[in-house]
């Protein structure tokens, strides 16, 4: 039996399961860890945007972006139920665990998608709503349905979806897209490949088992390590771009440079250490630090805009 036959069979199996989902199971569909990152970067974009928005409308705007991000996660799990059932990292998700059916997940995701976009358009503006709709579409249709199973560059192109929330937050206040919001987009966009490929090195066996053409599966772990270093090099100036473009202080510039160099150091360690458990440990260390890196970059921008440049 081929892997395609196996995954198709699993997809049919998980379709018949479910119907016993609790509130916590539906929350799990929203990918709350990913959503928290979406909320934070979107909030930074909103706070940095020039202009005035009532605090209550700002709260609703961020809530809509969070719900839209969660809807994307639910629809991702709906489509990926077959491969989620194969991979150790995802087999306990609500659908493969038999707690929620694929149909329930699809309905849940679609209701949240339309509701979040419509509400954002009404309370903020339709530019922000359009960007949120595009974010959901890009993540679900372009990345999940197409790129993820067809190209090892899936995470590079698909990373655009995860990088859009600060642009949505910015547009919720201003109603437009500017160089500042594009710079915020580029930081997360450039950060995504080395962040995700580090995890892919650790979970390479899972992706092979599921037949997902992640870069380590198709090009090999050595090529993946090269790409991680290259993107980490690129991330160094991109992470400093708020300073170069004049909307962050020299203090931020120095701090982002230090963070970028540490990130690069972790990436070089991944490139050097290639055997056994030490290699997986190095990759996981980079993955964990990458989360810390993005949080601090955006936290620095948030602090400068709330209390002023240092």
TrEMBL record:
<comment type="function">
    <text>Converts heme B (protoheme IX) to heme O by substitution of the vinyl group on carbon 2 of heme B porphyrin ring with a hydroxyethyl farnesyl side group.</text>
</comment>
<dbReference type="GO" id="GO:0008495">
    <property type="term" value="F:protoheme IX farnesyltransferase activity"/>
</dbReference>
<keyword id="KW-1133">Transmembrane helix</keyword>
<feature type="transmembrane region" description="Helical">
    <location>
        <begin position="126"/>
        <end position="146"/>
    </location>
</feature>
<dbReference type="InterPro" id="IPR006369">
    <property type="entry name" value="Protohaem_IX_farnesylTrfase"/>
</dbReference>
<dbReference type="InterPro" id="IPR044878">
    <property type="entry name" value="UbiA_sf"/>
</dbReference>
<dbReference type="GO" id="GO:0005886">
    <property type="term" value="C:plasma membrane"/>
</dbReference>
<keyword id="KW-0808">Transferase</keyword>
<dbReference type="InterPro" id="IPR030470">
    <property type="entry name" value="UbiA_prenylTrfase_CS"/>
</dbReference>
<keyword id="KW-1003">Cell membrane</keyword>
<feature type="transmembrane region" description="Helical">
    <location>
        <begin position="56"/>
        <end position="79"/>
    </location>
</feature>
<feature type="transmembrane region" description="Helical">
    <location>
        <begin position="167"/>
        <end position="191"/>
    </location>
</feature>
<dbReference type="Pfam" id="PF01040">
    <property type="entry name" value="UbiA"/>
</dbReference>
<dbReference type="InterPro" id="IPR000537">
    <property type="entry name" value="UbiA_prenyltransferase"/>
</dbReference>
<protein>
    <recommendedName>
        <fullName>Protoheme IX farnesyltransferase</fullName>
        <ecNumber>2.5.1.141</ecNumber>
    </recommendedName>
</protein>
<feature type="transmembrane region" description="Helical">
    <location>
        <begin position="34"/>
        <end position="50"/>
    </location>
</feature>
<feature type="transmembrane region" description="Helical">
    <location>
        <begin position="243"/>
        <end position="268"/>
    </location>
</feature>
<comment type="pathway">
    <text>Porphyrin-containing compound metabolism; heme O biosynthesis; heme O from protoheme: step 1/1.</text>
</comment>
<dbReference type="GO" id="GO:0048034">
    <property type="term" value="P:heme O biosynthetic process"/>
</dbReference>
<keyword id="KW-0812">Transmembrane</keyword>
<keyword id="KW-0472">Membrane</keyword>
<keyword id="KW-0350">Heme biosynthesis</keyword>
<feature type="transmembrane region" description="Helical">
    <location>
        <begin position="289"/>
        <end position="307"/>
    </location>
</feature>
<comment type="similarity">
    <text>Belongs to the UbiA prenyltransferase family. Protoheme IX farnesyltransferase subfamily.</text>
</comment>
């Amino acid at each position: 039996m081929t892997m395609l036959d196996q995954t198709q069979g699993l997809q049919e199996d998980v379709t018949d399961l479910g119907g016993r989902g609790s509130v916590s199971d539906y929350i799990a569909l929203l990918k709350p860890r990913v959503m928290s990152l979406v909320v934070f970067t979107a909030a930074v974009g909103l706070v940095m945007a020039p202009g005035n928005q009532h605090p209550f409308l700002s709260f609703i705007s961020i809530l809509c972006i969070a719900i839209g991000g969660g809807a994307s996660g639910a629809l991702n799990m709906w489509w990926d139920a077959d491969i989620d059932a194969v991979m150790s990292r995802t087999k306990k998700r609500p659908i493969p665990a038999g707690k929620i059916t694929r149909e329930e997940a699809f309905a849940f995701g679609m209701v949240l998608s339309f509701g979040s976009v419509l509400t954002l358009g009404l309370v903020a503006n339709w530019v922000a709503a359009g960007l949120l709709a595009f974010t959901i579409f890009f993540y679900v249709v372009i990345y999940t349905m197409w790129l993820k199973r067809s190209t090892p560059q899936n995470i590079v192109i698909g990373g655009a979806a995860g990088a859009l929330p600060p642009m949505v937050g910015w547009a919720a206040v201003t109603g437009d897209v500017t160089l500042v919001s594009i710079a915020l987009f580029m930081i997360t966009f450039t950060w995504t490949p080395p962040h995700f490929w580090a995890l892919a090195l650790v979970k390479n066996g899972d992706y092979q088992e599921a037949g997902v053409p992640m870069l380590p599966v198709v090009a090999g772990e050595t090529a993946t390590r090269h790409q991680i270093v290259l993107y980490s090099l690129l991330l160094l100036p991109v992470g400093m771009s708020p300073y170069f473009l004049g909307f962050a202080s020299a203090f931020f510039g120095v701090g982002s440079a230090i963070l970028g160099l540490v990130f690069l150091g972790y990436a070089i360690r991944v490139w050097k250490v290639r055997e056994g458990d030490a290699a997986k440990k190095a990759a996981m260390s980079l993955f964990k630090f990458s989360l810390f890196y993005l949080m601090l970059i955006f936290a620095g921008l948030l602090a400068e805009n709330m209390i002023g440049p240092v």
